[in-house]
Structures are given as C-alpha cells and as structure tokens.
Amino acid sequence: MNGNMKNIKKLLALMLALAMVFALAACGEEPAAESEAPAESEAPVESEAPNDTLVFATSTFGQKFSPFFATTAYDQDVVILTQGALLAAEREGNVIRNGIEGETIEYNGTEYTYYGMGDVEVVENEDGTVDYNLTMRDDIVFSDGTPADIDDVIFGLYVMLDPTYDGASTLYAMPIVGLEEYRGGMTPLYQLLLAAGRENTDFTYWDEATQTAFWESVDNDAGPAFAQSIVDYVIASYGTTGVADSAAMWAYKGLAEDATAADFWNAIVEKYGGDIMTATSTEVADVPFSDLLPNEYRAGVATGDSAPNISGVVRTGDYSMTVKMSSFDATAIYNMSLYITPLHYYGDESLYDYENNSFGFTKGDLSAVREKTTQPLGCGPYVFESYANGVVTLTANENYYLGKPVTQNLLMQESVDSDYVPGIVTGTFDIAAPSISDDTVTAIESANSNGELTGDVLTTNLVDYRGYGYIGINADKVNVGGERGSEESKNLRKGLMTVMSVYRDTVINSYYGEQASVIQYPISNTSWAAPRPTDEGYQNAYSVGVDGEPIYTDGMTEQERYDAALAAAIEYIKAAGYTWDEATGTFTDAPEGASMTYEFMVPGQGEQDHPAYGVAVAASEALATVGITLQVNDVGTDTWQNAINSNEVEIWCAAWQATADPDMYQIYHSSNANGLGTNSNTYQIMDDELDQLIMDGRGSSDTDFRKATYKSAMEIIMDWGVELPLYQRKDAYVSSTERVVTDSLPKDMTPYWGWYAEIETLAVQ
C-alpha cells in the first residue's frame, strides 16, 4: 500500500493476523510483514572483511520493538533480528519440521540445508484432534547469557492468549483445546466501562469512583492524546500545520483555526455517535487508544467462570511441549513457530509455576510485558542497543545459536523510499529495499558504469513481491436495492470491473515496465494455489459478457478491445436494471439503491502516483460516454484508509501481501465483514457457499484439494464483482557493490528468503 506506515499497520491487522506469530518469529527475511524466513543453516562463513557496520535504510519506526506488541513492518524487522523462534522456514515459505538436525531441500537446482531452533511433529488423531509436538534445542541462550527452555515459550504463548492481549497476533483464533474456556469470563476493564457508558449505575464490577476517574481520563487525557497522535502523524507525513489543518487532511473539515486536540477528539466522538470503541479502532493513526489509558483500565475483570489453564497446552519436558487443536487447520503449522521469549525479562519468574497454573504474570494483567516494548531482549542474531535520532543500533549476539554474526554492528536508519538508491550511491546506506518501478530501474542502471542493474556501484536482486495489487468494490455501497448479493448487484459491479479490466495491460506496463505483470485471479502468483494459464478453466479476469460469451477475439486492435469492453459493460449495467436511452446511447436513470455516480478513491497523495490511477481515469472517460460517472479522487492515504475502515468507500485500489499459506478466511469470510470479527472483509462479500469453501480449504492438508477449492472460491469472488486483480510486481534488494561483500548475500533469494535471511554471514568491506 505504497509503503505508508499506517497502511502497513492496517495490512498486518487484516491480512496476517492468523500467521503473525510465525511471521514475527522466523529469523531473517526481507523488510516486509509476512512469514519471515529464518537464517540459513550453514555455519557462518569467515570473511576477510572486518566485522564493522552495515547501514540499512528503512521507513519510520513505530518504536514498538516488542515480540508481543510490534505493529509496523519496520518494528517487526527489529523484532526478527533480536528474537528467536522455534520453527524455521525455507525458500518457498514452508515450515522446517526437523530444524535441530537440519533438513536438506532442493531449490532451483541447488540443495540447501536449513536449521532451526526446534522441531515439530504433527499427529492427526483418530478423534479428529491434532497434536503439535514441539521440541526446542537445549543450547539456546538469550543475549544476556541466560539459558532458555520451554517455559520461556509457554510464558510467551500465554501472553498472546491472555483475554486482555491486544497485540497484532491472533493466535487466539486457533482451535486450541481449552482456549475458549480459558479466555472466557474476563474482559478488559476499559471495554466494560466504554460499553456501560457515562450514565451507568450498575457497579457490579467497579465502583462509581473508578467510573468517574475513567471518563475524566478519557476526556482530559487519553482522548485528546489520541487526537494529537493523529495530528502528529499527519504533520510528519504531509507537512500540515496545526490541529485544524491536520484534521481537515484526516477528513474532519470545518474545525476552527485555533482548534485544540480536545476539539478534534470531540469531533471524532460526535461522528461516531459517542461510540468510542468504534471511533478509536477506525480512526487510529500511530497510537492505539488503549495504549493511552492507564494500565489499571487495561487489566482484565472477571465477569464469569474461567478455566485456570489452557488444557491443550501441555508441558512435556524441559525442552518440549504439545499444543492440541480440536480440528485440523492448515494455518496452524505457521502459528507454531512460537517465540522463545525470555520469561526472566518480560515476565516475573516468581509468578511462574506451571503445575499450579501460574505462567509468569497475573492473568489479565500484561502491564509488565507492555513496559518492555521499546527495549527488546531475545535470542536472535543481534542485540538491541538503542533507538535515537531515527536510528536503531544493533550489535552482534555472541550467544546466537548459529554463531556470532560476521558484521558487528547493524544500523537501521529511517529514511524515505525516494532517497534509498541515492543514499546507497553516496554512501549514506549500504543496503535498502526500494519500491521498484521504471524510474527506480533507470536510477540504478545510471549509477552503474555498465548501465545494468548490477555493476560497479550497485548490486540488485529482484524477486517476486509476495502479494498483488488490486481494485476493490464495496458490495455494501455498490449494489441494487440494498441487496449486495443479488444478480442485479453483481451485474452492476461486473459491468464496472469489465471496463476497468481492459486498461490494465497498457497502464501497468507504463507504470512498472518489465517489473510487473497483469494477473487474472485474486491471489499472488507466488502462491502454490494460484491458477496457471495451463490449468483447465483458466480465464482472464472479466473477459466474458453477461451471457457468458467471450468479450474479446484474437486479432483485435487495442481500440477494438476498449470498445468491446464498453459494449459488454453496457449489457451488464442494463441487466442491473439501469434505464438505457437508445436515442442518445446513454444511461439515464439508476434502479433503486444504485447510483449514476460512484467514487473511485486512489491513494496517490494528490500526485497521481499510483499504478491504478491510469486505469481509473481511462475507465472514467469510457463510462462517461454512456452516462455513468466514475469520480476519480486522488487523496492522501489517511483519507483513503479512513474511508475503507469506516465502510464509506465505494471503489478503491490497494495491495495485499500474502502469507506462505493461501488461507482466505480473513479477507473473504462473511464473519469478518464490516462490524464483525476482524472487520477485514472490506469487500463486504457475504456468501454461504464461499464461506464453506474457505473452511473446507483450511480444514484439509491435501494441496491438490485445496488448490481446486480455492479456485472455486476465487470464481465466486469474481462473480460477485468485488475485486479486480491488477498486477504482480517485483521487490528489489539493492546493496553497495563496494561496501557489501556480494558473495555473502543470500543465494537464490525468493519472496520468503530476502536479504537478511542469512544475516549472520552477511559481511561488509
């Protein structure tokens, strides 16, 4: 989503929640938010280069460097480099099950051996339950010299499964036996207070003084601080001045010029009719509302019966444990790469007594864990030293299980994407991952005397981006008669998508050149589940008309294709119930609940800098000729994100990042539509058949069955007309040829094996 920090945070919350534990835990991956691949197995190579300093250019940190509470991709990079996890992954993102002894796997004609900090054995029982038997190495040592054991893992697991946990991981969504009973009967106090309201007179779970103090804290402290965090974010991102100007950029226009943060807060609350929970979850910029409340209000309150432990989490030895699931879940294996989090640092050893159901903290009170957010400690390849002046300083961990990293110091320096390549050329940075485009390619080639991507100044590695760009339509806003799933509603949306789809090839080629290609299904081409052109039934997106006949024929010119797409769209929109005037060749009226005008929001920052912008404009011009207005608004990412989160957006463009597993639950299952579950089904698609296919897919270990199932699911998504796959682009890792030892960079980089997948062997000169 164009590299914006807020967007990445939203992305993580929506797309990666179920795989978050694995994503954060597996050491060594490129600076993105998905399933981070671990350090490669080979022992560190000796280099003649001195163990000096490597400078990596990154974006703005959120300064939550916690294995439990990191939210941005950039904070997670710090977590990945300082923490260790039980399970590793290989170049295709698959979990290594025998990491202690090592597994040798062929990739691209080369055999690679992968090690990890632990093993996993998956046992499917006759009663349908599944056991994940986890074993960790017995020689793992934290960077402060303290030995690690399975209790550190159990402690961390209970933190993320606590009823009051509000970090990015949704491990609590796994079907772990006994989890529901453990998490039930307890709710964070602030949620109860907000739900009860200011006029509450029921003091069963708190007294009147507590209630009064809470609302005073909200009105005078937390609320204005929340609004101020938005102001600070907008000023830093867009150069606005003051509260009123920043609020207007955030879609809150009309505040007085001398407005305060409290005024802005009151406007936010008023917009949501006093519903502070919804308001603060929707409008958040950098700082969650709960983070601004005193810890006493974030503590859990017992409101019913609750189990003293999670029966499916069983300690089986000093270095082993079992996690029992009530049913098979294809995503569970990734979630088993649990962090080995130091109990003695993040928790309270005096409160750990496994046999007596005490797990290193008081259930419902994570205040001690939250206090260690900015200063992480772990068993990863590097040790966190400091964050100051936009720079995270890391030093090599002498206790790392694969050996002390070759490069002594690693500096992660905040910058902006446009400065990445020039900064490497001038010596400010040693390595970066810039957004790749024709302009970026030109800049890299111009820097090298050979005019190529790799030369005497810069070395470039290109890999497929493990995600894809798309255009989305909100079925709740673009429909006929308020029936989002009716045939008329689907026809309306498919008509709009048909016009937009025909311009993809020209626009994407113009924007990305050879660094991207148009895709036809709503899934990254990096996924094993992605349909291939050779598959039976493969079809280009929105290439058939309302009668099911192909729109295009071989040999059509570009203009003929445009005309054919518009003609097909006209028939779709007629079938949706729009009134067509043969005399003028235009639509004159929309059916009940539909409109003659729809808004397409593009987060191009007002500079038209977005790969979907050209598609939107071309489609708008075509539709205008038949009386339909597609209003293209190029807005800031905050306005755009705000519209998506509040379910006000009609048509938009964005990009998903993919996890190693193609599970579709978070994005397309009806339980996550607006106001439900994770609120991550932004298309508002609600289809029983689709829901069943998604559950069938995640409930099977048969990849052939899953691929076929997801193909059927994607066809339903396309039939709803809510998503137009747009492009599959490249990621770039650019390093200084002069300062980074090229031979120490990982070989055969992939979407799951980036520049610091083998960070312990990476050398500078």
Radius of gyration of CA atoms, rounded to a whole number: 26 Å
Low-confidence stretches: 1-50
Mass-distribution shape: globular
Would you report the number of β strands? 26
Q: What report would you give on this structure?
A:
It is built from 24 helices and 26 strands. The model is unreliable at 1-50 (pLDDT under 50). It has 765 residues and is α+β, with helices and mostly antiparallel strands. Strands 17, 18, 19, 20, 23, 24, 25 and 26 form an eight-stranded mixed β-sheet that branches. Helix 7 crosses helix 9 (261-271). The longest helix is centred in the first third of the chain and has 31 residues, at 208-238. It folds into three domains: 5-184 and 306-387, Dipeptide-binding Protein, domain 1; 187-302, no CATH class; 467-659 and 725-729, Dipeptide-binding Protein, domain 3 (Roll), CATH 3.10.105.10. It is globular, with a radius of gyration of 26 Å.
